[in-house]
Each structure stands twice: as structure tokens, then as C-alpha cells.
Amino acid sequence: MSTADSLALPIFPAQRGCPFDPPPLYGEARDAGKPLSMQLYNGQKIWVFTSFEDVRAVLADNRFSTVPTTPGFPMQSEARNAVLQLPPTFIRMDPPDHGRLRRMFTKEFMVKRIDAMRPRIMALIEDLYAQLEAKGPPFEMVEDFALPLTSTVISEFLGVPVSDREFFQEQSRLKVLMDVDPVITLEASQKLIDYFDGLLREKAKNPHANDDLLSRLIIEQVQPGHLSHDDAVLHADLLTMAGHETTANQIVLGTLNLLQNPDQKALLLQDPALLKGAVDEMLRYNSIVQFNGARIALEDIDVNGQLVRKGEGVFALIAPANRDPKAFACPDRFDITRAPDNHLAFSYGVHQCLGQPLARAELQSVFGTLFQRFPTLGLAVPFEELEFKGDHFVYGLEALPLTW
């Protein structure tokens, strides 16, 4: 590709207009029925797929590799590249390695096990509600509610000391930043690795002392030799990060969705049977994992008429796919009655999110009670003053000041 050709291509990622909607460029390409040819920060040409059909086709095709060390793998920035060159977890592996490691964790996230956690999740929510009431309005949704809830849930589930949650919240935040010096993301990654290395070594001294995921992992996988200590460390880091950052951002955005759509909030209050569909609509509407679907073609592949050559990088973007009018009627409308159980918020194919039962349990517990407990909940600042995350891997709000 010549320099002139490269300069003519739009830069990935495109910029949003409305904070709730994917970038208009993606929607225009999707509605035109063709993928976008874009360039990364380093001038590399990539294909960007945005339609529901195309995104599912890419995510379901294991001829598109997720291994970041594959030559030509598409990276959004130097900071992201630095992190993805570290030893991988199963989410950055292809079959059969992916399946072998993922199966070590599958039973931990089965619906039956997660449903057994619902009373504890609800108890934590009630405790946070009581703290907010004791403090009095206003409060800040991210730091005072969403992050304390999700980080405590995942900490107790994994067996990570809840007292350390502020540490891993901050390091997790730094690790996934896009537009920073790579030294920052690498330092955060190393601090997390060192932390979990020490935690697992301590647990290994007496793994039967506690009934938590990491202790069971040591007993069932590490001690028999199925999983190395170093790989267990990497996966402990993965599960902790994935278990709090994504769900916390979805809680915050979901709250704002309902505040900005009072008719939908009223429907939910009137009919609790809408709760499950309401949560799925939040997931579809927000699609907070902005840059999921980075892949590289291992051979020439036809994606619904578009030839992707071996060695070419692609992004299969969930957010515009979840707004495809061919898959969802009036897709830019937030409508909790649609029950969009075919959305792609948790990805698709073998890499579909392992922790989605836990995320749904937390979201349903929050939105089944939040507006009953605080019926006059509202923004404490004008909407225009809210700061949305732009260069983060996970989309959301920097803060959501609320009052009642």
C-alpha cells in the first residue's frame, strides 16, 4: 500500500457523535452493506466489519486468529500493543489451546452456581443502598456504588482480599488505557502479575482452607499439573479485571439510560417481568466493549462477498452490529420491551464471554431494586457536563453524580 493510499484511508477508531451511539462512519458503512477499509495509528490497513451478519461471520470463523503475536495482528495503539505482547490467557488463544484452558473455568460460571450467589449479591447491594442513605445525597455512582459492588462480588467469588480492591481497580484502569505511554500499561500489568503471583503462592500453602475459585483452581488444575502457576496467575488477573470493570460501566450507563428515558423507567417499575429484557436491552444499546473483535486472517476468507486476504487484520465491531436495523427494529431507540436476546454484547462464537451469567445476575439485581429504593433518583449535574470515556477499551462514564 502506497503512502498516498494510506493517507486516503480513515483512521481507526472513528470518533463518536452522540455519546450513546457508535460512530456515524460505522453506521454508514453498515447500512451501505460493505466493510470499511481503515488504517491504524501505524498506517497498517485493516478491514472493519460493522453489520450484524458480517460481525457474527467473523467472530464465528476460527480461521480468523485472536493470537496477538501473529505477524500483522491489528493493534489500536502502542500502549495496547505492549500489553498484548505479554504471555496470553485463553481469550487470546485459538483452538485447541483456547478450549483446553477455557474448560478449566467453565463450571465456575454455570448458571446454577451463579444463581446461588444472588442472595449474597443482593445483600451487598442492600448494604451499599444503606450507606448511600446514611451519607445522603448527592453521591457518585461509579465510585460510591458500581465499582464497590462489582469489585466486591468478583473478589469474594475468586478469593481476592476485598481490602485490596482499590489497588486492582486502579491498576486495571491503567492497564487498558489506549492513548498513553506504553510504560504506564506495562507497569500496571507487572504490578498485577506480581500481586496475583504472591496471592496464589499464599493460597497454595493451604488451598483447602477456603472455598473460592482460585483455591479450587489450585487444587483441581495447578497441583495435578494441568495448569502452570504462571498461567494461573495470568488467568486470575484476567478474571478479576473482566469481572468488575465491564459490569461496573454497564451499571452506570444502564442507570443513565433509564434516567434519560423516563417512560422506560416507568414501564420497568410497573412491570418487574420486563427486568430480564431491560438488562439485555442495556447490553445491546450500550455495547460497552468498544474494540472487541480484533482478528487476523490465517488464510484467504470470504466474508459475505468481501475477500479478506491471508495476513490482513480485521475488527468485527459489536456496537454498530447491535444497532443494525436488519437485526433490530428501530435500533437507535432504547426500548426495554424488545427483549433482544440475540444481541452480541457478550461477543459470539467460541470467544463469547465466559462471565455473562455473573454479569446478568449483578445487573438484574441492581435494576430490579435501584429505582424502587430511590424513586426520585436523578442527575445531580446537567447531562452536558457528564464526561464519557473515549480512549478506553471499555466504554462508560468517568463519573455519574446523582441525587434524590
Mean pLDDT: 94
What's the number of domains?
A: 1
Give a short account of the largest sheet: 5 strands, mixed
**Helix-strand string:** HHEEHEHHHEHHHHHHHEEEEHHHEE
What is the distance, rounded to the nearest whole angstrom, between the alpha carbons of the first and last residues?
A: 57 Å
| Rg over C-alpha atoms, rounded to the nearest angstrom | 21 Å
Q: In CATH terms, what is the architecture? A: Orthogonal Bundle
Give the amount of beta strand, in percent.
5-15%
Supply the number of helical segments.
16
Q: Largest beta sheet: what is the strand line-up?
A: 1-2-8-5-3
Contiguous runs where pLDDT drops below 50 for at least 5 residues: 1-5
Structural class: alpha+beta
- In total, the number of strands is 10
CATH topology: Cytochrome p450
CATH superfamily: Cytochrome P450
CATH C-level label: Mainly Alpha
The helicity comes to 40-55%
Q: Based on CA inertia axes, which overall geometry fits?
A: globular
